[in-house]
Amino acid sequence: MLYSLYCYLSNIPRWHVLALALSAYVVYYFIQVVKRPILVCADGPFKEFLQCKVTTLEMKFWPTFWCVESRAQTVFASLLRSQILPNINYKREILTLNDGGEVALDWLVENCSDNAPCIIILPGLTGASQAEYIKCLVRAAINAGMRVVVFNNRGLGGIELKTPRLYCASNCEDLSEVVRHVHKTLPAQCKLGATGISMGGLILGNYLVRHSDEARQYLSAAKIISVPWDVHKGTASIEKPILNSLLGRHLASSLCRTLEKCQIYKDQDIDLDRILSCKTIKEFDALFTSKQFGYAHVDDYYSDATLHNKLHYISVPLLCLSAADDPFQPLDAIPIKAAEECTHVAIVVTARGGHIGFLEGWWPSPKEQYMDRLFAEFFTKALFDEDGHFERTRAELHRRFDSKKIAPLQAPIPQAISYGNKTLLSTEELVEKFMDM
Questions:
Q1: Tell me: the pLDDT tens digits for 191-210?
Q2: Confidence band, pLDDT 50/70/90 cuts, at residue 406
Q3: Catalytic residue among 211, 308, 344, 355
Q4: Is the Cβ–Cβ distance between 35 and 61 less than 8 Å?
């Protein structure tokens, strides 16, 4: 019997085998891949607004048929977008910060009304305004009639570093200055929103947490995409062999190249050669980032930067998009339970999408993809707010937040704030400074 079965299988025409394999994959695709995203948020006005106004959330996400694996979505999304999206001709503004540092703000205002809202966009780890995923969001916002300003972190976007300080996921003081500057620059009637992608989402999230009152004064709505909610688990996930670690090494090398371009560090008392030889993000953060921002250990930095346990401090309506298969953030690190109890934060979880991927269609088109379609629809409904629904929602959310009387989250006092070979404030001086405040 077994011999007869072997003879039968060995004589099946190849095209039959291919047809069976394709049929099996089609069944798998429709059952396991194509799914409606999960919306996680406490019952209340924000959830009702999203269910009523953001119709994309009611639709199934159809990942690109031949590109459903998480790493494939991540890599091909970057490659395809970089090939099909031309560079954008921004109007650049150089903003000098309080400590003498400079950041580049890239503005794009096309075909919009005088009272059109504006969205601040924060790129990822080493991204800038010409990053392919940023151009996707910028095009979507412009097509929807909104202004856009991309906030390039210090040392990025082709701007020379003026002070020996870069940026990190937990420090949101630069963003605070940018938000206040943009708000002051815009016409008085313009509403302001903000979006952060990956590490940009961490910076924006920490701003919403640590500057809650200021954030709701200036920002009407916010959105974060593919944020590593738990930085500890995120860095551990990206170091898993083999494919994840390859992505991690690529990002670590991007960090090293960014630091290498900063001529100001050539004269600083740091082991630059050792730092530039780092192979992982955590190794780079342990040798450079955490020390520069005064943390005793890299784990202290990661605990300070993480967001999954801080949602209750956020008072600005925040929509989040995460993929369950994101290689930078495992599913069990997405704060589902916390979001179920939070009225101000809604998390949309797709079954597939990778990290800043979310490719859909038989062949991904630059005109419309899931990530930018959800982005544009949310901000269009929230910021243009033609029937006043969102403003009523926002007012009720603020009333509920105030009634809880949540004390603002205080940033931990670091060992010291260091700029290269200079320690600006010692631990004792910092303690005295905080006691005097």
A1: 999 999 999 999 999 999 99
A2: confident
A3: 355
A4: yes
